[in-house]
């Protein structure tokens, strides 16, 4: 029996027509699935009992399952989610002042192998399907409601496990569902996709207007970037910077440049000055991220003094730089710490 969550809308429409049903039935079912996250067809109360029975005989509704929840002392929740084939992914619910941000995954593991990233060390298993990406949002919304949490889920960031632009077709489908006003209704301004800069699909994302762009830069010198992020050799820094200069932006929109500070590696004054130089002409803001260590990691976090000195160089050269406060570090839920472990 086929999982209806994997069925394309056009294919479902064709099935409805063979059943002698009207086209609008597809939209009704889609709203129940993607707007409400129902788990069986009998919850679809604006559809006839006979049609619900036919749907139930033909399709299943098989959502990923919440396997484990870890809670940080700062209120961050890390969800371990089991997929239909028993693979595991992690999703992080991050508390902000008056809302939640959800950090979602786009792949099981990651093929990039960034040396400072825990996910990168687990290797790549497979791409997530669109419904598996959207399911992370639906599970989080249900968790918030069922546990009476005070904040609402407002922001979605594709910054969990995997490289979203290496799974562009499924990620695009998930973005369409997240954006749709009759489904989950997240505006473009509330969705951010983070990439190392996969040039093949970077412009496709920009032209889609389905979310904001963040770029995982993490080094201002090309040789160093290739050393700590080996996969970036496929997309040279010089070509990435040119693509960012030409990237389509709304009048007040800026690209977010993400830069993890690694002690003694990429956190010197020279690194900061080179960052100033290469970002000239790019409409951007910089998120500085203090490195979050994980078991077996070869890197350390810089001292506060080194972090502030790096930040000051950027501000002195009129670059907007914000030191992002990491959350969930005590449960390995902070940036670069995800690994989908059952332990």
TrEMBL record:
CDD domains xref list: Radical_SAM (cd01335)
Highest taxon of source: Bacteria
Cofactor: [4Fe-4S] cluster
Co-factor binding details: Binds 1 [4Fe-4S] cluster. The cluster is coordinated with 3 cysteines and an exchangeable S-adenosyl-L-methionine.
Catalytic residues of the enzyme: 90 (proton acceptor), 335 (s-methylcysteine intermediate)
Organism of this sequence: Desulfonauticus submarinus
Keywords tagged on the record: 4Fe-4S, Cytoplasm, Disulfide bond, Iron, Iron-sulfur, Metal-binding, Methyltransferase, rRNA processing, S-adenosyl-L-methionine, Transferase, tRNA processing
Miscellaneous field: Reaction proceeds by a ping-pong mechanism involving intermediate methylation of a conserved cysteine residue.
Gene Ontology MF: a single term: tRNA (adenine(37)-C2)-methyltransferase activity
Keyword Repeat found: no
EC number assigned by the record: 2.1.1.192
Catalytic activity, as annotated: adenosine(2503) in 23S rRNA + 2 reduced [2Fe-2S]-[ferredoxin] + 2 S-adenosyl-L-methionine = 2-methyladenosine(2503) in 23S rRNA + 5'-deoxyadenosine + L-methionine + 2 oxidized [2Fe-2S]-[ferredoxin] + S-adenosyl-L-homocysteine; adenosine(37) in tRNA + 2 reduced [2Fe-2S]-[ferredoxin] + 2 S-adenosyl-L-methionine = 2-methyladenosine(37) in tRNA + 5'-deoxyadenosine + L-methionine + 2 oxidized [2Fe-2S]-[ferredoxin] + S-adenosyl-L-homocysteine
GO cellular component terms listed in the entry, alphabetical order: cytoplasm
Biological-process GO terms, alphabetical: rRNA base methylation; tRNA methylation
Gene: rlmN
Short name of one Pfam family: RlmN_N
Family the entry assigns: Belongs to the radical SAM superfamily. RlmN family.
Protein name: Probable dual-specificity RNA methyltransferase RlmN
Enzyme class: transferase
Ranges of residues in domain Radical SAM core: 96-330
PROSITE patterns from the UniProt entry: RADICAL_SAM (PS51918)
TM helices/strands, residue ranges: none
Endoplasmic reticulum keyword on record: no
Residues the entry annotates as binding S-adenosyl-L-methionine: 162-163, 194, 216-218, 292
Binding locations of [4Fe-4S] cluster: 110, 114, 117
Subcellular localization, as worded in the UniProt entry: Cytoplasm
